[in-house]
Amino acid sequence: MGKKSTKKSNFLAQGTILVIASFVAKAIGMIYRIPLTHILGDDGNGYYSTANEIYTIILMISSFSLPLAVSRLVAEREYRGEVRNTHRVLVCSLRFAAVTGGVLSLLTFLLGGVITKYVMGVELASYALRVLAPAIFLFALTGVLRGFFQGHGTMVPTAVSQIIEQIVNAVVSVACAWLMLGYGIKLGEEKGNPELGTALAAAGGTFGTVASVGVALLFMIVIYLGYRKGFLRRMRKDKESRRESDRAIYRAIAFTILPIVLSTLVYNISTILDQGVFNHILAAKGFTQKQYTAVWGIYTGKFRVLMNVPLSIASCLAPSVVPALTEAMANQDLREAGARTRDTIRYTMVFTIPCAVGMAALARPIMMMLFGDNESLTMAAGIMQSGALLTVLLALSTLTTGILQGLGQMRAPLLHAAFALVVHLGFLALFLIKFEWNIYGVVYANIIFAFIICLLNAWSIHKTLHYRQEIKKTFLVPVIASGVMGIAAYLIYSLFHLFAGNTISTILAILVAMVVYALCLIKLGGILEREIRRLPKGDLIVELLIRFHII
Questions:
Q1: What does the DSSP 8-state code read for residue 501?
Q2: Which residues are within 8 A (CB) of 94 and not within 5 positions of it... i.e. 6 or more apart?
Q3: Is 381 helix (H, G, I), strand (E, B) or coil?
Q4: 168-218: pLDDT as tens digits
């Protein structure tokens, strides 16, 4: 009983580990994008982002959902004590990943030019997309090993591998982009195509992804080899007589992964459809490819890169809560599943809402600090202010989709995302054609998309668990505390900017904002002492708070 209660309180701690690692990884990713953006320029960023968006969609088809699916299958068998069947899930999943990842990797390389030219309307992104092709195969295998450890309730291997992956990505991306820019400029002069320089620089930047995923795979293999001895010892002690056949496991993988893949695909394909619609409508309005590619580069290369930092909280907590929910549903313990759902949603909102408000309050200073004072600064800051609500809604919709999958509701997220996508595309066309909102139309259409998914997912969770979301500490207190924080951050920045530079003023404003938000959250009862103690190093945090008379 003690072990089980430990596991019940462990999923948030494991999720926190993954959140911290993801924050570090995203911070590294955000930092290296600064020199990369300067090397590529806005049009090169457009090529880079186009290739990455296509790559992401293909990953979702082949392997992006494998960690979650493998985690769920492993957790089910571990809960029943079927260690040998757990091992068979791992072996079959690796075979499955090798085949799907290998086939789609080859097709991406062969058809990269067709996709970028005729689907996206950005032909020169083909160089970057073809470079990314091998990463699809490597990521599939890495995802299976990550899912295997997540199914055992530990997020540490995934967390460490993500940090290593981003460090390698940062170094290799910037170095290769710089080298390929010089080569591309010379080649462009020879061929009479000045855009070839930034296109090849974007391809050099994407090679960092291939190298980083390869290193992450090697790291996961080393970790598994260290774990394998103990795992084989457990297998020998396994007295379970029922042995699943390979066919049964492949069927389980297919039936588990297909709804996840489709819902994830529909959920995320909106970005690639947005770009296709955006490019074609602006081209019809007389914009050149260079113009609309540069605008899209600002949206994806600056705003979405920053937005992905708070979104990583939801992306991390979703896989961490799946094994916990799988166990609760196996026990038919709806109360425990509801408690875990409530804690996860609240935890996400407590961190995501202040990030969104802070990004809106300091939009221009942050953009200037990271990307410099240039002609795209006003647009980049405007997009970030307009997208503050989008950050919160995307985090909530991502998390609730993962919760439904953990509850065994595989079809619901797919249907919700599909309905929201259709409505979203209608509004997108309206905003671009009728209202002529340009890139802001994309932001507002995505807000509608995420809001619809949030509502439908909430309804499905309510029906499944007879669950009602707590409002005050989940939403109301974080919003009030974030509002106070945003005002404080803006005032501190305005004061120090009178005599200090933008960077120093921005960093001070962010640090003050973090302190103000934490104080407001505690004083308003948004987080309690016992909840802080459940976090990693929670006892130490509480001791410090008591010492400073905060609690």
A1: -
A2: 141, 144
A3: helix
A4: 999 999 999 999 888 888 887 777 777 788 888 889 999 999 999 999 999
Chain mean position to CA 310: 9
Burial 249-266 (b: 16+ CB within 10 A, else e): beebbeebbebbbbbbbb
Residue 41, helix vs strand vs coil: helix
Angstrom distance (rounded) from CA 387 to CA 421: 18
Q: Please classify residue 229 by burial: count the beta carbons closer than 10 Å to its beta carbon, then call 0-12 exposed, 13-18 middle and 19+ buried.
A: exposed
Dihedral in degrees, nearest 10, Cα atoms 270, 276, 277, 283: 160
> Would you place residue 11 in the very low, low, confident or very high pLDDT band (cuts 50, 70, 90)?
low
User: CA Rg, the chain, in Å?
Assistant: 23
Indicate the Cα dihedral angle 369, 372, 377, 383, nearest 10°.
Answer: -50
Using alpha carbons, select from 266, 192, 476, 250 the residue that is nearest to residue 353.
Answer: 476
469 neighbors 345 (Cβ within 8 angstroms): yes
Report yes or no on whether pTM surpasses 0.85. no
Q: Is pLDDT above 50 for 5? A: no
pLDDT at 2: 41
Measure the CA–CA gap between 360 and 516, rounded to whole angstroms. 16
Per-residue confidence (pLDDT) for residue 64, from 0 to 100: 64
Asked if residue 454 lies in contact with residue 394, where contact means CB atoms within 8 angstroms, the answer is no
Write the pLDDT tens digit of every residue in 463-495: 999 888 899 999 999 999 999 999 999 999 999
